[in-house]
Structure formats: structure tokens, C-alpha cells
Amino acid sequence: MESDPNKAGVGRMVVESMRTSPSDVLDLFDVMCELLGARAARFFVADYSLRRLQQIDERGPVGPPHPIAGTLIGRIFMGREIQTAGTDPTVVSVPLVEGSCPIGILELDVDVWDDRTRDLLDQVVAVFVMTWIIKGRYTDRVARARRSEPLSPAAEVQWDLLPPLACSTEQVALSGILEPAYHIGGDSFDYAFDQSRVDFAIVDAIGHGMSAVLMSAAAINSLRNSRRARGTITDAYDHADQSIAAQFGDSYYVTGVIGSLDLRHGTLTWINAGHVLPMLVRNGAYVGPLRCKPSLPLGLGGHGRTVAEVAEVTLQRGDRVLFYTDGITEARSSDGSFFGDDRLADLLVRASLENLPVQETVRHLADSIIGFSSLGLRDDATMLLIQYQPPAS
Questions:
Q1: Residue pair 148/44 in contact by the 8 Å Cβ criterion
Q2: CATH 3.30.450.40 domain span(s) along the chain
Q3: In 3-state terms, what secondary structure has residue 47?
Q4: pLDDT of 98-151, one tens digit each?
Q5: Closest among 190, 348, 345 to 259, alpha carbons compared
Q6: pLDDT given at position 40
Q7: What is the spatial distance between Cα 31 and Cα 322, in angstroms, rounded to a whole number?
Q8: Distance CA 210, CA 321 (A)
Q9: What predicted TM-score, i.e. pTM, was given to this entire model?
Q10: pLDDT at 1
Q11: Options 1.20.1270.220, 3.20.20.70, 2.40.10.240, 3.60.40.10; which CATH number does 153-388 get?
């Protein structure tokens, strides 16, 4: 029986990825080039802000970072499709994605670009991405590659707390972003998929810097603890509330939204812990905020009191719900005017009408807020956008 060269090539890539040490993952490029008939490989990693791509090799950064906005490499990165240019050699640009979260770009100089090379490339690149992510847990190389400017200690804690910035399935797409990316303080978000639902939370701790981050971390990890123990969102609220009060006292608190989306029926349930209300966009129009009676913020609401309301709404196919912190709408321009709810809702509608993917939408919104706040953000600005997209049947 004739052997499959592609299968053998992928097998070799898997074996080499298992052998390589965490600090030497980029040595896999030699194997990739040999398997794909490439003369050279170049690796670009997206930074924390998703505004720059930095080329790295085994020694570290190579040259200055490349802006994503307004550049060819940036369009390839956000477009998620392989692009080719030239013929001698052919330069193949491959967007690298962890699940549905983009992480960078791989460029290859190949002499032959045909269907066989394309099929093998997809599989070899998938092995490399998994190796980069998994072995990145054992080294600082991945975290170091993602910074294009100094990262504050508080932001370091917060980024280590976060899940991947985006995830998409057949039923739902979600994406979050934090600003200012390199100096984020007390804002955070979290999500986790179960068989038939996705649980999520967004939080905003009082104050700034490390003290706010510690409260945010306590809230997120308490919510995770309840979720993993299969508690209800009411249980999660109670436990997080008690945890914040016990650790930080009655003078400190965390606002937030704790929710769950039933992926089969589109039922969204949530608790509003003294937080700004989420926005709903449906059929390309802003419907308004989703109402929920506010319970007290985490740290102030316990002591035997009950949750004010567990709100519920049934989402329709294509609905987008934006959860955000008040640092978004309270961002100020140089003349002192606020970014405001109306501007945020208008930009959200425009992105929906243009069919921008959820991750591109939150990145575009973040860019708009940063551009509006010419003097810099005075408070953390965080978003979590969820789009319900079940199959049409």
C-alpha cells in the first residue's frame, strides 16, 4: 500500500513538537521548512493591545513592531485567510489562530505552492500552534513576545487571569478586550463553555492599580469556584460577595454582571451587581439596554440579603449583547466631553451592519475609544461582546 506523504509529514511534526523543550519551540521552523519545501520562515506575534505584530526569532524581537491598522500584514491577520504573493519564491502568509482567537502570522518563502503543500501546511501549522500555546505555559517566551511596550505589574496579574480573548462555535461568538492594555487595573472578564451553555462575567473593582486587581482576581476566582462546583449564578453572586467582604472589608466592592446563555434556546439570564446595563443590538438596530434590577455590588450585598433580580431574555438569531464597564462611556476627549452611551451604541450598530466579526468589532470599538481619549483613559475600559448565532434550522 502506498504511504501518504502528508500523513508522514504531520507525524514527524508531532514527534518533533513532543521532543522540543518549551524554550526552543521556534526550532520547529526548521522542520516546517523542510516538510513544506520552504526557504525561510518568519513568525509575527500579536501584542496585548491587538494593535501591533512583532516579529520574533529564537533570539527575541526582530526589528520594530508592525501596526495592524492600515497595513497588509494587519489585514491578513484580521482577515483569517491565507494569502500568497510572488512566484520566486512564493511568500505565503498564514494567520495563526488558537481555536478562534488570532495569535499571529507565519510567513513562508516556498518554491512550490500547490494543493498538496496547502493541505500539509494546514496540518503542520495546527501542530505548531498547539505546541506554542501548550508549551508556553512552561516558559516566559510567549508572554514576553506579546508585549511591545512595558507592562505594569497590575496588568501582568490581570492578563494572566484572563481566558482567551475570543471564542466562536456554531452557536455563539464572543470576544473581550481590556484597555489600557499595558496598564489595566481593576477590570476583568471571564467565560467558560459547557455542553449546552456558556457562563460569563464582567467585573469592575473600585480603585486602580494592584489593590483593584487583587479585588478583581478574588471576584473572578470566586465566580469560577462556584461555576466549577455547578452552583447557580445566584450562588456565584453570594459566594463572591462574601469573599470580597471577608478579604477587603466593607469599604471596598466590585460591580459586575454574572450571567449564563443557554445555547439551545437562546435564553440569557444574568444578575446585575451594581453595574452598567448591557446593550442589545437586533436586526442591525439598537434595541436599548437590557434591564435588570441592580443588586448591591460584590462585597456590599450579602449578609443574608437576596439577589434583587435574576433577569431573563430570549435572544434571537444574530442578536449582539455588549457588556462593558463605565470606563468606556466615561472616557473623555480633550475638551472634556464624554464618549457616552449614544456614541457607543452607534458604533456598535455600524459594526453590526457591516457584519464585522465580534473580535474585530471590540477591537474597532477600543480603537475608537482610545482615539477619542486623546489625553489617555482615566479609568479601565473593558468590553465583552456576545453574538448568538445558532444554525438557521
A1: no
A2: 5-145
A3: coil
A4: 878 889 999 999 988 888 888 899 899 999 999 999 999 999 988 999 998 999
A5: 190
A6: 93
A7: 43
A8: 30
A9: 0.91
A10: 41
A11: 3.60.40.10
